[in-house]
Amino acid sequence: MEGKRKQPLGIELVKKGIVTEDDIARALDYQKAEPKKKIGDILNILRVCDPYVLIDAMGEILEEKAIYLRESDIKVNIADYISVDIAKQNKAIPFEEVSGRVKVCFADTSNRRSVETVRLLLLNKGLIMDKYITFETNVDIILNSLEGNTGNIEVNSDASSFVDSVIRSAMEKRASDIHFEPMQDTLRVRYRIDGQLINAVNISKEKEAQIVGRLKAISNMHQEKQESQDGRIIMYPEYNIRVSSQRNVYGEKFVLRLLKKNADVKQIFELGFPQDATLVKRAFNKKNSITIIAAPTGEGKTTTLYSIIDYLNRPEINITTIEDPVEIRIDGLNQIEVDSRNTFAGSLRTVLRQDPDIILVGEIRDTETAEIALQAGQTGHYVLSTIHTIDSVEVITRLRKMGISNYDISSTLATTVSQRLVRKLCPECAKERDFTEEEKEIIYGIASKYGVNINLDGIKTYDAVGCKKCNNSGYYGRIGIFEVLVLDDEIRELIVNNASAMEIKKVAMNGGYKPLVVDGIKKILAGTTNLQELNNKLALY
Questions:
Q1: For residue range 231-247, what is the model confidence (pLDDT) as tens digits?
Q2: What residues does 187 pair with on adjacent strands?
Q3: Helix (H, G, I), strand (E, B) or coil at 95
Q4: Domains in the chain and their CATH numbers?
Q5: Is 103 in contact with 97 (CB distance < 8 Å)?
Q6: Which of 303, 333, 253 is nearest to 477 (CA)?
Q7: Which pLDDT score is estimated for 149?
Q8: Residue 48's pLDDT is what?
């Protein structure tokens, strides 16, 4: 937005009395977190003064025509002048034509390339461009409302149709979550796809109240209540949709979790689990024991649990699950959902009287649940559960901190699995290339550290390019990277003797244990993902 001037825009605005030095200081602090945003846009976001006054002052300083552009100011069909893609790429909006002169608003008039691109396109149509500036936020709102920019989202419809179109569009795009986020000037809608949040649409603030009311109505939430609420949407036959609301400084934020009903449970090997059937049988087929899956939130622990259950499921086995909530409903399993009255620990006590062979406990959250789960493993049951730790060895440390004795851990814990989800390269647009020397150095360094033989000669890697199929991300779907710790007699003895996690890990590696990064490298060499994505997940460099 800022063009040529003798002094920084902020100083000029202070001189004019439009903003204060404190306002500029706040804007500069904001810019540290959002370095790509310009000061003028930040001042508008912070609402330090009337936006119409601010944009007029900026126009005077920059010696540019300026307008606080709203949808109501657009008097033409934008697509008649430039394509939606060109408008998005250059953040440019034609909004009025008078006698062959087209008024075009830019988010950044100092971007000569963008200005010249639009000018030449109009010139080819026999039209003259009149350049205006406005705030980037205003441009984004309008661009997101253009036909084709929001997919099947009905931007200009009533609240009911809008919410429905957002949900259906999210389903089509394979989103796991939908975020309705109130901002200062807009209501932002974002989808989480393959673990990444992407912007879907920005809606005018004037529509926010109706949209919030609609979300509460279909989620069976109290309309007048503005504190945190939980609800469910049941009007989509193929999905269970959990809804959570939370008040923030600009309004009420809603997050919708999309859970597909009767979803097919993936086979353990489909998840990316190491292709060793012997290992799987050894790890997941033990009575009188417990297996724990370790990973941060959102890394696919529940999916792995169900895959193991599916692997073990036979008609003669009684399997009971205790979950919060039940995310995948499967015929033949006894599935229990915990709530404020039925805790994990309380439900587990009851389940033990139901003659189970295998018990799935959704998460070990506290000492009581940990104690009962291990006791169940000691009394002839096979128990599966999850816990929040950074790797499979740290599970032992976490149980110790919960007050579980070294003896109980050693005698009952059979296997721990740590996992992460990495995005898979889109097969439609991935671009093949040779590894760089720097990439080779990183991979060979990891291989040397963990005793893995790797030869990169003749092996290619791939860049994530982006196309329509993958929403221009370059990635489509996710796959797990895993590390598996199977406790042998040597490791059990170390646990009893209170050895540290580092000591246990050293001995485990001598026995064949490999950390997450090794499985990640294997998937890079297979062309499934790339080093950039693995680094984003594990911070390798």
A1: 999 888 888 899 999 99
A2: 182, 203
A3: strand
A4: 9-142 (3.30.300.160), 150-260 (3.30.450.90), 268-538 (3.40.50.300)
A5: yes
A6: 303
A7: 44
A8: 83
The token pair that represents 219 in the structure block: 């989620």
177 in helix, strand or coil? strand
Angstrom distance (rounded) from CA 371 to CA 245: 34
* Residue 14: DSSP 8-state: H
How many Cβ atoms from other residues are within 10 Å of residue 188's Cβ? 19
pLDDT tens digits along 402-447: 999 999 999 999 999 999 999 999 999 899 999 999 999 999 999 9
* Cα distance between residue 531 and residue 444, in whole Å: 12
Cβ atoms of residues 230 and 457 within 8 Å: no
In the structure encoding, which two tokens stand for residue 129, read together? 């461009």
Dihedral sign computed on CA atoms, order 278, 284, 286, 291: positive
Q: Are 146 and 152 in contact (CB under 8 A)?
A: no
Q: Note the pTM of the prediction, 2 decimals.
A: 0.67
**pLDDT on residue 275:** 63
**HEC string for 444-467:** HHHHHHCCCCCCCCCCEEEECCCC
* Three state DSSP letters for 396-459: HHHHHHCCCCHHHHHHHEEEEEEEEEEEEECCCCCEEEECCHHHHHHHHHHHHHCCCCCCCCCC
